[in-house]
Each structure stands twice: as structure tokens, then as C-alpha cells.
Sequence to fold (307 residues):
Amino acid sequence: MIFLGLGSNLGDRETLLRQAIGKLSEKLGKPVAVSSFHETAPVGFVSAHRFLNAVVAFNASIEPFALLDFTQEIERELGRSRKSVNGEHFDRTMDIDILFLGDTVLSSERLTIPHPHIASRRFVLEPLAEIAPAFVHPVLHLPIQAMLHASLAPRLFRLSAEMLSGVTSDAVFRSDEIISAVNRLLPQLTAHPLLHTPESLRRLVASERTEVWLVCDEASGICGMASLCLCESPTGLKAWVEDVVTDESVRRRGYGRLLLCRLIEEARGCGAKGIYLTSRPERIAANALYRSLGFEPRETNVYCMKF
Fold:
């Protein structure tokens, strides 16, 4: 079974998707299944133009590179003149991705099958789950429905200098996306934020004594941040929680709790004797969260959890 992902964010998107399906059918036969059309925000680049996405399935026999040539020809016919290069993405009238070609597993400079980003892209998983929920990924050995369920959960990751330098192959976000997200969150922490450059953030996370954690929401967007700062003292290693913040648009979804639980776990794992944070009395909801996790209020707005 062939599964192809279609997307368009320029022109008459619905008409272009239907035209692409028609052109694919001329060579691959009548589709076995076509998902509904899903409107989504751009992923991997900034644009004012939203996408319309779909997945279509065909029961046909075709060589991988012949299929690639065919789909790229249709993209050109429907007005696409610029391909994504080195992770840089652009608006397009038509994008056709080969998601699966049966149980084929292929990795070459020109083509990778299954598509390498299926597991992290809800705009692919949602229409896929609609038409083939039980199909099993031939590399991950998971059904599509399970992959979609996993993608709906918020995810945490520790920011590293390698991510910001673009030298890690499994990075979820480009360095410019991370910098933009961090600088978007900072004004919620202070009235006069000192915005980060790639170099300043790299220096910060390169320290063994500072951990910066980010949380992604169910739409795979960075929506929160918190830092763990470790320091030696005469009575042992102590840990301070700093800069806990989530986007105002995702408050009350548990992302702050998720970040704090991870920092507590990290502090314990480092051998810290306790973990501290400061919070103003007027932050009623935040202070209630700290108490619910086991932090005890002390003098001068300090909260402490002893291990």
C-alpha cells in the first residue's frame, strides 16, 4: 500500500489537492482511501498562509524513485517552483511526500522511506489515522493510531548547545525556532527582558550547572520553559528552579507542573540536598502549584523542598 501526504498553502488549496489526487490516479489507479482535508499552521517555518493537508492511499506497484519522479512532476505541474533545501522551508502550491511504500525501508541522499518525520508531525498522523489507524510503521513497529496518541502528549526536552548549533540530526526544532520561542517567553517573566542571541543561549546551556528545559504542546509548538541551576554550598549541592513560564494561551493544561516535576527529578538525580525557588505572594495559582508538589514556603518569598 502506498501512502502519500499532500499539502498546499498557496492558491486555491482545496482545488489543488483535488487536482493532485486526480493526477496521481492517472498512474496509480483509483485511490483506496482519501482522508478529509485538515487545515494546519506551517511547521518548520513562519508564514501567514495556513496549510490544507491530506493523506491518500493507493494499491499500486511502482519503484521508489519512479514514484518520487512522478510526484515531483505533479508538484511542478501544479505550480511549485522551489523545493525545501537543508531544512529551509517555503510556501508552496503543492507538496507531495512519500510516507510509506508498503514495508519498503530505504535511506539514500535523495529519498528516505518511510518519511523520517512522520512520528513528529500531527498534520500527517491525523489524516493517516483517519484512513489507516492499524497500519504498522515498518521501522518503529507501531500502529499509526498509537503514534498519533503519543504525539498528542506534551513533550519535554533539555536544550543543548548541539541543538542550537544545528549539529544534532534528531533535533525537533531548528535553532532559530528555539531562540524565537525563548525570546517570546521572556517578557512574561520580566518587564525588561534581555533577549538571547544564538551565541548567548549556547553559552548558557553549555554550563554543566545550568539546565534549560522546554515543553512542547500537543501541536508540537514550544510553549513553556524552566531552568535548573545547581550550586555547591558548605552543606552540600543545592538546586534552584528559575524562570518557570508557560504561554498565556496554554495556561491550566498542566505544562508548568510537568516542567517542575522534571526539574525535581533532575535535582534528585544530581544528588542535590534540596530544591528552592522564589515566588511573589500575588502569584496565587503558581504558589498553589508549588505547595501541591511538596514545596514549603519559607521567609522572603522562598519555597523549599528538602530531599
